Amino acid sequence: MPSPEFFQVLPVSDALTLLDSHWQPQPGSETIATADALGRVLAADVHSPEQAPAFRKSAVDGYALRAADTYGASQSLPAFLSLRGELKMGEAPKDDIDAGEALLIHTGGMLPASADAVVMLEYTQSIHEAEIEVLRAAAPGENVIQAGEDVAEGALVLPRLHQLRPQDIGGLLAVGITEVKALSPPRVGILSCGDELAPPEADITPGMVRDINAYILSALAEKLGALPLRFGIASDRLDEYRQRAEAGFAACDILLLSAGSSVSARDYTRDVINGLGEPGVLQHGLATKPGKPTIIALCQGKPVIGLPGNPVSALLVAWQTLPHLIARYLGRKPQAPDTVRARLSQRVASVTGREDWVAVNLSQSEDGMTAAEPIFGKSNLIFTLVDADGLLRLPLNTGGYQAGSMVDVAMF
Amino acid sequence: MPSPEFFQVLPVSDALTLLDSHWQPQPGSETIATADALGRVLAADVHSPEQAPAFRKSAVDGYALRAADTYGASQSLPAFLSLRGELKMGEAPKDDIDAGEALLIHTGGMLPASADAVVMLEYTQSIHEAEIEVLRAAAPGENVIQAGEDVAEGALVLPRLHQLRPQDIGGLLAVGITEVKALSPPRVGILSCGDELAPPEADITPGMVRDINAYILSALAEKLGALPLRFGIASDRLDEYRQRAEAGFAACDILLLSAGSSVSARDYTRDVINGLGEPGVLQHGLATKPGKPTIIALCQGKPVIGLPGNPVSALLVAWQTLPHLIARYLGRKPQAPDTVRARLSQRVASVTGREDWVAVNLSQSEDGMTAAEPIFGKSNLIFTLVDADGLLRLPLNTGGYQAGSMVDVAMF
After folding, report:
1. pLDDT (0 to 100) of residue A260
2. 3-class SS letters over B149-188
3. Do B406 and B341 touch, CB atoms closer than 8 A?
4. Considering only A160-164, A332-336, B16-20, B318-322, which range has the smallest mean pLDDT?
5. B241 and B192, same structural domain?
6. Is A334 part of any domain?
7. Which ipTM was obtained for this model?
8. pLDDT of residue A261
9. Residues A45-70: tens digit of each pLDDT
10. Among B166, B175, B150, which Cα is nearest to A375's?
């Protein structure tokens, strides 16, 4: 039995690059209502079926008129125009205007064909019901939004792989696109393995623990916009573990196995993964702490991650890998975690040859700076992460940070 | 009819402070499954009903033993111990160990009562089935996780108003808390008003436009963790507008009215809001562009925002106010938008007395810096925002920014 020391570890980013070199994601797509598509990723370029605005409209409350009729007009020498009535919102002008005429129009109102400008109310005076004074000249096009000025018919509205924001939903609906073809979010399957595990709602007998990894990992997948699928708990029996892994694997796009994946007699994860298909295990062992005994694999075109059974290790490895996998599945770049610049309150040491992640609390110092206080303790206690505000990365091959160092803390 | 110039405008932050001084949110709460509670805000402190771990367990694969039996042991002078068998995962030890005995145990296994340390496999050798050599002394407590070391029975697990992250869900489930009392997210009601508006799926006749504000605003509310409720479109008839506003107001916690709220003849929004209850309109006019004619109100303890009908103005005002309203409703601080530091490619000017928001595109410059390119054009075209990567704020009473300035662009 090889000792864990024999792992040829790789930095997390190198292991993901290795996976990417083998992985060509083939996401599915589905047609959904635009109104329900917030955060979804477009499966195809979207072109506008019509122009917007659909007609020339006024940008202000005022009078639609022919600009030429106002040339030379001023406060002292106004232009007099006949009032052709008022255009109600939502209606097309019943008649065109003639030379010397004006139509009262509201913001967004449709211009009559011969009007080429709108003069704001502020620059006019009403003489009587049928006549107005215009106190300043209007240029052609003034206060007019041209048809198609927002978007032209046939124009590319949004490109393939764009992730929809509130304004994008507005833009699509503005040109009548009420459905879009979106990539299906990846189904992230999660299978826990271990004779000691029981569901959280079960009565626990001595020696048993609640399987929290399935819920931590599904919450993380949900947060990242994926569709988590919990496949329950397999026993430590190889045949059962293999059977449940195969069934889950068939039903998901990315499989997370949460089991003892350290090299030990009771550990079948490596064999189970290799049984799921070619090329199988690509890397066993990451240069990160916690999380060293992780397995990175690709089976029949689907990533499979063998996570340590320890919840802290499992979460920190998933937090470093799952954003990349989900983003790459959808053809996007992973979002970097929010970071906060803070002053480290105590020295933290690290070991050469690996990245260390240290949980920290943030607080305000008396001098107004943000202070980062490392939370020391056994690394496999979940409340270390519950109590933490963020994580501090100690990069590869550094000795750590001195007290007082300015560091970037990743919020998580 | 007063001209819009007569508004006594307030900066957005001052208007929100004014609202806060009148507003005491009274959020409801509901009991939900912990597994489904990602992102939800706790309605009460949560204490642990039990300790975790529930029993003393091993942190490694190795032999549970009495530390005293190993004192003085070394590579050259090992301690010999009788093997008491192997503890299977998930089971409690059947018997205790006696002096001079060891029990093979796995990571997470429950220690027998008399064992006080675990020696890792690497520091042992198997002599035969019934005896092992221990090659180094163990200290009491070595490789042992004490009962209650992660969390004590009765300890505060998470405080009221904490927003649940994946690790929090894990911590709660670890101690058997399968349900939590969470604040109900605010119901953000949205009513559009205007004779020219039609639902996005309708056939549009000349003079009509699709009501996209309802969808932009509901997507924003959804993104912020609220529960959006779209109340449809009211006509410009005062009685209908008033009736639909009252019905919607009764069914939500925060009401957004998207209608022409500029001061004009057809504008009833101010009266409609004042009809919803005391104190009514607190502020009409914000020192922001776009978005000046906004109304900020509180009626019967619920915020009501009268947004400009123009989609760009409506979104930018909601983007500046809704995060504050939703966070305050839930007793939390609003999250600041992500920002990107960038070099401005062109001069942008602003007017004294207001904040200006300018849509920008971001790109990589040849020298590796991020460049921010302002998108000029009419401010009421929604595709200006669809095409934008972010927003640049020109603060109050500055002249804008020169080309080449380093600026913070808010991603949105």
Report:
1. 59
2. CCECCCCEEECCCCECCHHHHHHHHHCCCCEEEEECCCEE
3. yes
4. A332-336
5. yes
6. no
7. 0.94
8. 45
9. 999 999 999 999 999 999 999 999 99
10. B150
Tell whether B61 lies on the interface with A, counting CB pairs under 8 A. Answer: yes
CATH number at residue B164: 3.90.105.10
| Same domain membership, residue B297 and residue B208 | yes
Rounded to 10 degrees, what is the CA torsion of A238, A241, A243, A247? -160
- Give CA–CA dist B138/B140, Å, rounded: 7
Instruction: Map A167-182 to HEC letters.
Output: HHHHHHHHCCCCEEEE
Tell me the H-state helices in A295-410.
Answer: 311-329, 382-386
> Which residues of A are less than 8 Å from B386 in CB distance?
157-158, 167-168, 170-171
Q: Looking at residue B96, which CATH number applies to its domain?
A: 2.170.190.11
Whether A358 and A344 have beta carbons less than 8 Å apart is answered as no
Q: Which of B36, B86, B167 to mutate to test the interface with A (most CBs of A within 10 A)?
A: B167
Pair (B217, B288) in one structural domain = yes
The reply to whether B317 falls in a domain is yes
The pLDDT assigned to B236 comes to: 85
Task: Establish if A103 belongs to a structural domain.
Answer: yes
pTM of the model: 0.94
Q: Which two tokens stand for residue A357?
A: 């992640």
As a whole number, mean pLDDT of residues A320-342 equals 95
Helices A213-223 + A311-329 axis angle, to 10: 30
**HEC-encoded secondary structure of B336-369:** CCCEEEEEECCCEECCCCCEEEEEEEEEECCCCC
Among residues A4, A12, A5, A6, the alpha carbon closest in space to that of A287 is found at A12
Q: With pLDDT > 90 as the criterion, what percentage of chain A qualifies?
A: 86
Place of tokens 């190795």: B62
Domain boundary among B267, B298, B329: B329
In DSSP terms, B374 is beta-bridged to: B360
- For position A379, what pLDDT does the model report? 67
| Alpha-carbon distance A219 to nearest alpha carbon in chain B (angstroms) | 5
Indicate if A156 and A208 belong to the same structural domain.
no
B362 CB neighbours in chain A (<8 A) are none
> Which residue from A184, A186, A189, A185 is spatially nearest to A229, judged by alpha carbons?
A189
Q: Which of B157, B266, B378 sits opposite A145 (nearest CB)?
A: B378
Q: Is B197 on the interface with A (CB under 8 A)?
A: yes
Query: How many structural domains is chain B composed of?
Result: 4
The pLDDT of residue B262: 47
Starting at the earlier edge strand, list the strands of the sheet with B131-134: B117-120, B62-65, B101-105, B79-86, B131-134, B124-128
Look-up of token digits 């623990």 = A209
Give residue A406's domain range: 339-411
Give the pLDDT confidence score for residue B264 in this predicted structure: 53
The answer on B270 and B163 residing in a single domain is: no
Same domain, B44 and B65: no
Q: What is the pLDDT of residues A364-388, one digit of tens each?
A: 998 999 999 999 876 679 999 999 9
CB–CB contact B236 A206 (8 Å) = no
The list of chain B residues with pLDDT below 70 reads 1-7, 260-267, 378-379
- Angle CA A262–A312–A18, to nearest 5: 60
Question: Is the alpha carbon torsion for A316, A319, A320, A325 positive or negative?
Answer: positive
Radius of gyration of chain B (CA): 32
Taking alpha carbons only, the member of B285, B233, B279, B284 closest to residue B259 is B233
Asked whether residue A38 is assigned to any structural domain, the reply reads yes
Q: How far apart are the C-alpha atoms of A50 and B213, rounded to whole Å?
A: 19
Range of weakest confidence among A2-16, A254-268, B91-105, B333-347: A254-268
B213 and B325 in a single domain? The answer is yes
Please give the structure tokens belonging to residue B182.
Answer: 């969470």
Cβ neighbours around B404 below 10 Å, total: 10
